[in-house]
Structures are given as structure tokens and as C-alpha cells.
Design brief:
The structure is a homodimer of 266-residue chains. The first copy, chain A, is α+β, with helices and mostly antiparallel strands and 266 residues long. The first copy, chain A, has 2 domains: 66 residues, Orthogonal Bundle (Arc Repressor Mutant, subunit A), CATH 1.10.10; 147 residues, Chorismate lyase (3-Layer(aba) Sandwich). Helices cover 26% and strands 31% of the residues of chain A. Chain A has 8 helices and 10 strands. In chain A, the strands form 3 sheets. The first copy, chain A, has a 6-stranded antiparallel sheet. In chain A, strands 1-2 form a two-stranded antiparallel ribbon. Chain B binds a DNA duplex (19 and 19 nucleotides) through helix 3.
DNA sequence: TAGTGGTCTAGACCACGTG
DNA sequence: ACGTGGTCTAGACCACTAT
């Protein structure tokens, strides 16, 4: 009972708290998938299709339990995991909400640059360019596209305290970010990822970063107001959305005099 | 009921699953602490005092439930959190074990340097020096010691594929690491943290790192076989043991040509 | 076969936020 | 006063591991 990943919330699964006599053939479970995982999948699906949008409240645990025909505890465990993965946010007494990149909390999950005194400095973005082109072999591979598929390239500077501190080159799949132009980028206030989720329905869930120390090349050095050869932090990021589909490749160069990249090992 | 953080597992808390009529005065809860958190504290205490040592199995959930006079579900939730924090490891069918730095799994939780191809290269450590001295003001502050308290300084090189790749300077509180000498360091096979937990009963639980790109100073450059001024990753780590007490300050210089520091944002 | 952790349920009560 | 998530319990059954 309760296995079959192909048919979520199938109820050959009679709860049967009445002792013994557990219904029909237990039927060996080839690939066992817990009920709450199936529920988790269904909830994720509703998030993905936009049934519940970022910032909105989702149905209460009892409602979901009724909807999926499982106990509240099972829904709870599913939501627990989704909250741990930052897809949902629980607020006691109020309800459970779809996470968004607009919250204070989420800001420093992706840009972890702090000032030497440990303070989070606000920063402003300066757009350098935004144009459409064909993916290089390398970018295509990372974005899971075919070579020469259309992509959007964004280049921008981040200023901390008025000083150029971060240079970003961002590649996005053109098919997903149809209609993304320099104008719309310039208009939008707030984090890039907040715009992506609001305007293009694409939410960044997780990312991996490869970090190196490199010598600034002349063009980069110039933009960051440091001498050529100056040590910079090179941060190669790939971001993923639902289903672990890569939807962003980003290379950043960080000036780390007066600032540092904060990481917690736990 | 069930509040009072001062008196863990106090049972003014009659389960009373019988409907209604919940015992005496509910008594406003000034600082509410869930039962499972109290249990978690008790288990942590047993870990700290060494009642259960790294690698050993701890009592089963039912045993612990009986011992603490709570339900199995409550013990389960406490253990769940401790497992999530990497203090315990659950193994279905076998039991729950105290985590150790000897496991494969734990190795790359603290040294996240991978080769460009993504492979985890094995490395060998070369001890440069190990001596006792008095803490500088800066080190004392970070280790929560008084200035000029005794500390141990370890300097070592890590070789990847025979190439000097990491230079580490490690400061430890002398009082905790009494009897730590170059000889004992040289003898010990395996990760440093495995030795610390086995020989000195000090287990590193979590750490924070501040990462920068810096130009190699001559002395450092020389040891790492790179030219002076070469870009290096500077990693400043503070490690904590039970009770969030800092017990290690470490500065590392990483050569990141052919290797990168891997980080996952999630 | 016995023991361990893992899943699922159902119901009671608590703490928090809002009317 | 009501609804939400949060805690706690108790019991049944499943999956895995060892003997």
C-alpha cells in the first residue's frame, strides 16, 4: 500500500486505524515513495503552475488534508519540507505563504557580500547592457539548451556605498525571458530575482556557485576602478527553478577590499 | 503547561488525551519552550559530556522516550533536528549514531575545494610547525579568551595531486588542546577534526567563513609555489563546538587554478 | 523473528494573530 | 471568539537490518 509513485494519493491506502486486518494484498513495493512525498509533489505542482503565486497564502493544512484525502499530519510533513527548502513560509496564526524574493529575509540568500564590519550594505544596480544573442556552446550546455539557441545577456554593475564593487554577466534562456529589454530592466525597482518571478513567472529556487580568486583583466578592472591584475573574487553561478531546470548562468567579479563573501558551514 | 525552560521535562504536563478538563491552571507561559526542545537539550548534554561518543549508537527512540517520560514522537522530533544539524546520524533498521568527522560524508563539509572537473581530490597534509604561544588581542577576541592566554598555532600545507594548494594557519585555545604537539599531529592519520574529537573530545559543529580574494604575500607565495602578488582565495574561518563556543580560528590561502571553492545556495 | 527507524493517522490542546 | 500553525500523544503498520 501507499507506494506507486505514478499514481499519487492513490488510496488502496485505507488508513485502517482499526487494529489488524489491513485491507487487501499489501503488494510488494518496488519503489517505495512515502505519501507525504507525493503530497509534496502535488503542492510543488500547484506552485509551479501558478495556482498559488509568490506572496499569496495557500490553503490551510486542514483544507489541503481534505483536498488530498490524507491526514493533517501528512500535509504538515510535506509543508515542513517545502518550508525548509524556502519554497513556502509559515507564519503562526496567519497561515502558510508562497515565498518571494521581495522579502528582507531572502535578499542575502543569493548575494552574500558583507562589509568588513559585518553590516549588510544596501546597493544600487547600474545596467551596462542587455541584448539578445545566440548561446555559445558553453552557455548552451549549462542552460540545457541547443547551441545557438537565443539567450539574453545582461551586464551590470553593483555599487556599494557609491563604489563599483560587483560586475555581473548574466545569461538567460531567451525563450523563457521573452520581452525582457533594457527598458523594462531599468524601470524595475528591487532585486532582479523579484522581477523574474513577478514578470516572467520564473522563480529561482536554488543555485550552485564556483568561487575562485582571479587577476582582473583590463576591461573588468576598468569597470571596477581597480588596477589590471588586481585580485578579484570570481563567482560562477548556475541557478535552478522548479524541477531543477537551470534558468540562469551568471559570472560575477567581486572587489573584496572592505567587503567579504560570507559563508556558513553547518 | 509544558512551558518553563528552567525545568526541562517537568510534568505539570499531564498528557490528558481524555477530552476536555485539562487539569489545573494553564498558568501563562512567559517564555515558552516546547517539550521536544527540552529533550533536544538533554540529548545534546549527553553528547557533550561524552555519555555517547562519536561513532557510537545511542539508545533507541522508545528507550529515550521511557527515560525522559515523553512519547516516542517527541523524542523523534528532537532527534530529527539533531540529525538535521549533523550531530546525529539515523540509519534505518540499525539505530541512531553520534556523528563523527571520520565519515566520508563529513569530509567535504568543511573543505570544499574541488578540481575543475568536479572531482574530490584526495589530499595529503604537510605539517610546517606547531607551537604554543600567547594569543594576540585579535585571536583572543575571536576565541573568547583573555589576551595573552595560551594558544596553539599550527601551520600546514595541503597538497592536491602533489601540488601545494592550501596553506593553513590554525589557532586553538591552549587550555582545551593540552598536550597537542607536532609529534602527535604527525602520527595521526586522517582529518584534523577527526583527531580533535578523538583525542581532545572537542567536536566542531559548525563554522563561519569570510572569503576574499587577495594578492599573495612573498612568504605565502613562496610556500604555495606561485609568484608574489598571485591571486589567492583567503578563507577566514571560526569553528564552534557545543553551546556555540568558538574553539578554532583558521586562516587559509587557497590556490584556485585548477580548483574551485564549491558553494550551494539553497 | 525481533528490533530499529520511518510513515500515517486521529484527536486534544497550546500559542499566535485577527477580528 | 475564531482560525491558523505548533506541540504532544498513542497506536498501528511498513521498511530495513541483523540474528
Amino acid at each position: 500500500m501507499r507506494a506507486m509513485s505514478a499514481n499519487p494519493v492513490s488510496h488502496a491506502n485505507s488508513p485502517a486505524p482499526e487494529s489488524g486486518a489491513s485491507a487487501s494484498a499489501p503488494a510488494a513495493s518496488p519503489t517505495f515513495s512515502p505519501l507525504y512525498q507525493q503530497i509534496k509533489g502535488l503542492i510543488t505542482q500547484s506552485l509551479e503552475t501558478g495556482e498559488w503565486k509568490p506572496g499569496e497564502i495557500i490553503p490551510s493544512e486542514v483544507e489541503l488534508a481534505a483536498r488530498y484525502k490524507v491526514s493533517q499530519g501528512t500535509v504538515r510533513k510535506a509543508i515542513d519540507e517545502l518550508a525548509a527548502e524556502n519554497l513556502l513560509v509559515r507564519r503562526q496564526g496567519k497561515g502558510t505563504f508562497v515565498a518571494t524574493h521581495n522579502e528582507e529575509r531572502a535578499q542575502f540568500r543569493f548575494l552574500r557580500l558583507l562589509a568588513d564590519d559585518g553590516a549588510e550594505h544596501p546597493h544600487v544596480s547600474r545596467l551596462l547592457e542587455c541584448r539578445r544573442l545566440r548561446a555559445s556552446a558553453d552557455i548552451a550546455r549549462q542552460l540545457d539548451l541547443k547551441p545557438s539557441d537565443p539567450v539574453v545577456l545582461i551586464r551590470r554593475l553593483l555599487q556599494f556605498d557609491g563604489e563599483n564593487t560587483v560586475l555581473d554577466e548574466i545569461w538567460l534562456p531567451g525563450a523563457v525571458f521573452r520581452g525582457l529589454t533594457a527598458e523594462r530592466l531599468a524601470e524595475y525597482k528591487g532585486p532582479l530575482y523579484a522581477m523574474f518571478e513577478a514578470e516572467f513567472g520564473t522563480r529561482m529556487i536554488r543555485a550552485t556557485e564556483k568561487i575562485r580568486a582571479v587577476a582582473a583583466e583590463p576591461a573588468v578592472a576598468d569597470l571596477l576602478n581597480v588596477p589590471a591584475g588586481f585580485p578579484l573574487l570570481s563567482v560562477d553561478r548556475v541557478s535552478y527553478t522548479y524541477g531543477d531546470r537551470p534558468v540562469e548562468v551568471r559570472r560575477g567579479w567581486y572587489v573584496t577590499t572592505g567587503y567579504y563573501y560570507q559563508n556558513d558551514l553547518s
